[in-house]
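Example (one chain per record):
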Amino acid sequence: MTGPRTDALPDAPPSPATTGSPAPVPLLLGDLHGSLSDPLLDAMTFLNEVVSRFPDALSFAPGRPYEGFFEPEDIHGHLDAYLEHLRERGLTREQIRGALFQYGPTKGIVADLVARTLANDEGLEVPAESLVLTVGAQEAMLLVLRALCATPEDVLLVSAPCYVGVTGAARLLDLTVVPVPEGPLGGPEPEAVAAAARAVRAGGGRPRALYVVPDFANPSGASMPVPARSRLLEVAAEEGLLVIEDNPYGFFAREPGERPTLKRLDRDRRVVYLGSFAKTCFPGARLGYVVADQEVLAADGRRSLLADELAKLKSMTTVNTPALSQAVIGGMLLRNDCRLRRANARATAFYAANMDTLLQALERHFPEPLRTRLGIRWNRPEGGFFAVLEVPFAADTAALERCARDHGVLWTPMGDFYPDGGGERRLRLSCSSLTPVQITAGIARLARFVLTEAG
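Predicted structure:
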């Protein structure tokens, strides 16, 4: 007779049913934060899920850069360039080791390079100490909203339709959002912003800030005319508003021309400027930044920059932005003489050609008599990644699933971009991550779906 096996796996723990122990009590969704029941969060999950379920579908859904611009070997070159930069600055091996391997300054380690790039690309002269490097622009939004909105009466105005990242961040913070519809010329009309601010004030609230993407906005692709930008800053001053300017797409105009940022036009530090390297460098670095050069005065007379106050919040959330991500992007900036606009010339031409291809394909498949009869229309953005198609049926998640299943093409429903409802018959088309051949084939598939749904 042999003895017991000493290498046998341990028995599974007894189940509650066999021990008589009570079963675990589930958490009630109603007892968790209300944002977790928000359909907006479910909608984003659905989009991710439907893409994985239909991997062979041509997708106009993601607003991401074209992957053909990325080479894995480049990462090593960028990192080496930044390491050489640190050595040229006189840092010892031990200091470089600490800079890259240890926790770093909350505000970041490449603010000087970002400030130099802003000066070269946008004509923005801002001190490096007014910048905070963040984990993507999404963190910058969250920090800015948390800092600016201090009481339940504080209200965030947003240009509508609006990027769901900022409305989602507001929802997480329990902030009230009031939409200001985009005007026919693009972006929020300044007088409509003034009217919205006054209405909020009349209702007992405090209009605190306006969020806007002046260039090629997500999701609409709309851009603000330059005169409207100047007038918007005047309105902001009159109404006591700060302006949160988000500028991820500003490089990608279809035609050359002067497009000054709101921050460049800003004369009294009313604009808090959000930037991202997701589109101009690569998204995987997850590197963004905020320019917050507003002066903050404490009750005891102490003065600081808003950037310093944002850093306090960041120190209690993400602590600091990963040094390796900053080093790789810093090296990329150095290798391009801190001139990303010039470095993105190829991408700008590619995205412009893609938008032209998209608009031409829509024109070809929906000629004037047909689109007039069916009520089909679309905008013609001056650049960026996105266009919006209006259709004669509900462009909701059920329609998206039918389109993916039966026609092999994906897009994004617009309804979730309207904080107070709307956009039910609109869909967003992103042309940034596809080739011209794929765009042409995808619009042909989409046209068949639209005509089928329209009857």
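Caption: Residues 36-63+345-454 form a domain with the Aspartate Aminotransferase, domain 1 fold (CATH 3.90.1150.10).
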